[in-house]
Amino acid sequence: MSQTVTEVRETVAALHAELTRYGLVAWTAGNVSARVPGKELMVIKPSGVSYDDLSPANMIVCDLHGDVVEGDLSPSSDTAAHAYVYRAMPEVGGVVHTHSTYATAWAARGEAIPCHLTAQADEFGGEIPIGPFALIGGDDIGKGIVATLAGHRSPAVLMRNHGVFTIGRDARAAVKAAVMCEDVARTAHLTRMLGEPVPMAQADVDSLYARYQNVYGQVAPPPAP
Amino acid sequence: MSQTVTEVRETVAALHAELTRYGLVAWTAGNVSARVPGKELMVIKPSGVSYDDLSPANMIVCDLHGDVVEGDLSPSSDTAAHAYVYRAMPEVGGVVHTHSTYATAWAARGEAIPCHLTAQADEFGGEIPIGPFALIGGDDIGKGIVATLAGHRSPAVLMRNHGVFTIGRDARAAVKAAVMCEDVARTAHLTRMLGEPVPMAQADVDSLYARYQNVYGQVAPPPAP
Amino acid sequence: MSQTVTEVRETVAALHAELTRYGLVAWTAGNVSARVPGKELMVIKPSGVSYDDLSPANMIVCDLHGDVVEGDLSPSSDTAAHAYVYRAMPEVGGVVHTHSTYATAWAARGEAIPCHLTAQADEFGGEIPIGPFALIGGDDIGKGIVATLAGHRSPAVLMRNHGVFTIGRDARAAVKAAVMCEDVARTAHLTRMLGEPVPMAQADVDSLYARYQNVYGQVAPPPAP
Amino acid sequence: MSQTVTEVRETVAALHAELTRYGLVAWTAGNVSARVPGKELMVIKPSGVSYDDLSPANMIVCDLHGDVVEGDLSPSSDTAAHAYVYRAMPEVGGVVHTHSTYATAWAARGEAIPCHLTAQADEFGGEIPIGPFALIGGDDIGKGIVATLAGHRSPAVLMRNHGVFTIGRDARAAVKAAVMCEDVARTAHLTRMLGEPVPMAQADVDSLYARYQNVYGQVAPPPAP
């Protein structure tokens, strides 16, 4: 296997620490994957393994149909959904799945999160949409994710009665979207508990989204510390 | 004492760290126990001792009537309830008790948690049931747990005006059930605060439960790190 | 100064870590004090000093009128209230003050926390009462605490529009009461958000309180780890 | 560059740890700046850099129009707002921006936080006001902050549909205001969820504010640990 797979193993193992840091996951219920650039491969968490025990060595390498190429353990039970997204959306380099609490509460009601915050306009460009209910075990979840997110600004979808899937140009961007999705879901929940948000003009949402996608952060990524 | 008791002491002492990690307990109000395989013994937390101070050496070994066999300290004041469960349910290898906040709020209202999430269907197979109010100090709590959970899919019961008891094939499984019970209780609470969940079909709940019990995780447990 | 003062300095400095561990305090807004056994002295946090910077050496020793006996810094701005409690209640060995969030919300509404949980019956023996609004800077807060708690089972009082004061036979017991007060306040809040708690019989509350005060924990304190 | 800039770099880098400690920020969405005393310079966080990776060396030095004077990275995308505040309010030595959850929920509804807590009277002297909606990228946010806070007791403003900006005589004071703003916003939210707060007399609010600004803490700052 190439160096590239080695690096992706390291990235995927390490990024799971962001899911626990931000409280997006309980026990083993959430996972990160990344596409191996230039190959028909992805790297994903093993199923049912504690976040404390993840390491580059126990990440699972699968092909884009979810079949294991390297690894002694079974891959995440959500592997089929990740794989479907990589097959259908070539621009996607990373996928994250969580049941983060506030976002999942919106998903349980089947309600999209409307956009009343500049932070949501920045990252999601408008509402965070609802995807269909789908059973695990085949391509249904993957199809629901792709049908909802293809052509949508939002990198996050709330799968009904289930939880959150996010996508990104790489795994780090997908993790960021998962973190921001829960942050926005919580703020929107609290806002609504005591009244109604002040509406934002669509032109302002559009302007914020355009700026954030192009101006925020560093032109080149900052050097590693 | 056999090696087995030594190992169970280690497991029980260590698993209490999951109760604090997930915020399921305040001060000393929660405990884990495990059956010693093949013996009429259980290992449980000492009463009123801080989680920081737990070690394999200060765990208490009791018989299945709650009488101390090994240990200098008094066992958990919930020992009688744990012991009753081990006597009545031979398939149970671990018991956990917490007053985790969201689950206890459902318990205070005497409301079962209805199943509107795939994560709840996976782990609990449907609703998380309410058990009776019972006073500490005899077999009443144990009887209430067993009467509620015997023949029920759920490994967790919400004891009215009190808190949560969970069971598992071993102590780790019971701790997982306690973690997931609070996670599900919190999401269900938040869902209901702003409306009603979309119902899930019973067939979907059944399908998810069947799959999770048989397919999730590793066929054999992953090697320790 | 005697060894005793040295030990009390260590205890009081260390116990502040429980306030931050349980999220009871923001910035520097909360404090622990202890009576020095057998002396007309108390040890308390210095005013406005970060919890990270507390040590036995920078604790302040005051007489029971709040005048500094040892220490280079100003004592907590709540010193007068602590001192009043020690003067009026000779059985009290420790006092804690916080603005912990859920308890303070009940205090802001001027509502006592009714007892619908076994954990509250255990520790508080019934409701957690409301004390009067009182301005800082003299004996008014101390008088309000004592007037509310004298003869009451509860070691915690919710001072109106302000926050929580707790008492105990020693500082550790007062800290425990502060931790359990917030835990109970949060569970009671969540309970009420979706309906009404099932009432508990007064006889059950009495029975739980009597048992917990006499049976819970170790007959002698467990040895330090 | 002078020693002073070096010291301000250290202070600003270190203070970001308080934003994460108190959960005021998600991912990279929040920033601290400080004026360099006696110079027309400010030090601010680089844009889009993780809090884990901040160090004195990668802080950005800007002039008071937001143009970079020292630093290899782009400054925070909120630099223009910070700079405007320093230009317009010479007494301000530090500025903080967060999207802390509870405060931002009040901001999304366009509601000021009314004062019903002694802690709010102490730090904010009354309500925490709402500022206008303003788009990022020019002086509009800065103008909104200054128009709201000039002549107001509160060091915090809730910018509509956006988040919190706080000011202080130095960066530490602005961070404290950001911490206390979220603490007060959360308590006020919880209070209102189950009823109405008991009103506080304006004279009491005034008295608390006057005392806290003059008496709380140490006459001279305590020595560093």
From TrEMBL, chains A, B, C, D:
<dbReference type="GO" id="GO:0005829">
    <property type="term" value="C:cytosol"/>
</dbReference>
<dbReference type="GO" id="GO:0008742">
    <property type="term" value="F:L-ribulose-phosphate 4-epimerase activity"/>
</dbReference>
<feature type="domain" description="Class II aldolase/adducin N-terminal">
    <location>
        <begin position="10"/>
        <end position="189"/>
    </location>
</feature>
<dbReference type="GO" id="GO:0016832">
    <property type="term" value="F:aldehyde-lyase activity"/>
</dbReference>
<protein>
    <recommendedName>
        <fullName>L-ribulose-5-phosphate 4-epimerase</fullName>
        <ecNumber>5.1.3.4</ecNumber>
    </recommendedName>
</protein>
<dbReference type="GO" id="GO:0019323">
    <property type="term" value="P:pentose catabolic process"/>
</dbReference>
<dbReference type="InterPro" id="IPR036409">
    <property type="entry name" value="Aldolase_II/adducin_N_sf"/>
</dbReference>
<dbReference type="InterPro" id="IPR050197">
    <property type="entry name" value="Aldolase_class_II_sugar_metab"/>
</dbReference>
<dbReference type="InterPro" id="IPR001303">
    <property type="entry name" value="Aldolase_II/adducin_N"/>
</dbReference>
<keyword id="KW-0479">Metal-binding</keyword>
<keyword id="KW-0862">Zinc</keyword>
<dbReference type="GO" id="GO:0046872">
    <property type="term" value="F:metal ion binding"/>
</dbReference>
<dbReference type="Pfam" id="PF00596">
    <property type="entry name" value="Aldolase_II"/>
</dbReference>
<comment type="similarity">
    <text>Belongs to the aldolase class II family. AraD/FucA subfamily.</text>
</comment>
